[in-house]
Amino acid sequence: MQQRRRVFLLHDDTLERTAGLIQEAEGLTLQQLSSLHLRDRNGGETNRMTGEKLPSLKDVFDLTRGRVFLHLDVKRRDMIPGVIACARAMGVDRQVDFWGDLRTPDDLAWIQHKVLPEMVLFMAKTRLGSQDAESQLDLLFQLNPLLCEIYFDSLDQLSARKALFADAGVRLWVNTLDSVSCAGFTDTAALQDPAAIWGRLIDAGVSAIQTDEAEALRTYLKAR
Fold it and tell me: What pLDDT does residue 23 have?
């Protein structure tokens, strides 16, 4: 008999921070995962347990259908085809996107074979500060995705290629969350001087910004 499988949403490798259980999710049964209670806020020992449960991918698709566009950070790319199939079966495949590294010809071939035929939005990751930046850019323009998450060590690396991205029709996404930002372009700095952070990114060609300070960014954009 084939075992039932369900995909759950979990950021960490283990359930320790979110549910107080030092164990990987893969080692638990479907029933055990479904019954787990989550800690409040961002988890950890200092936050109390709540009545909230670990959400399944289907739960989230049901909740957000027709209401919210989802950026899906699937850590293991071999799971992406299954997640796409789930999204299509639930009728939400036009309100999700996926991302992944694009560093090698093998990465490009995998994306072209496994993702592009599914006609879902795919966002490549390109690193301008890497030693192989030029080869990564070559692969990026071969793929020519609608959106690219761009990493950089200095804003000059981005500004110098603004026209190149614009001519190719590749939109740029930058993350300003403090823990994963580039070159000091952080949410914390943006709250002090939004023009120096979000404004300079936009001027360099960025059209999508991931932030924990959405209201502050919205206020800045209205005034810009």
Answer: 87
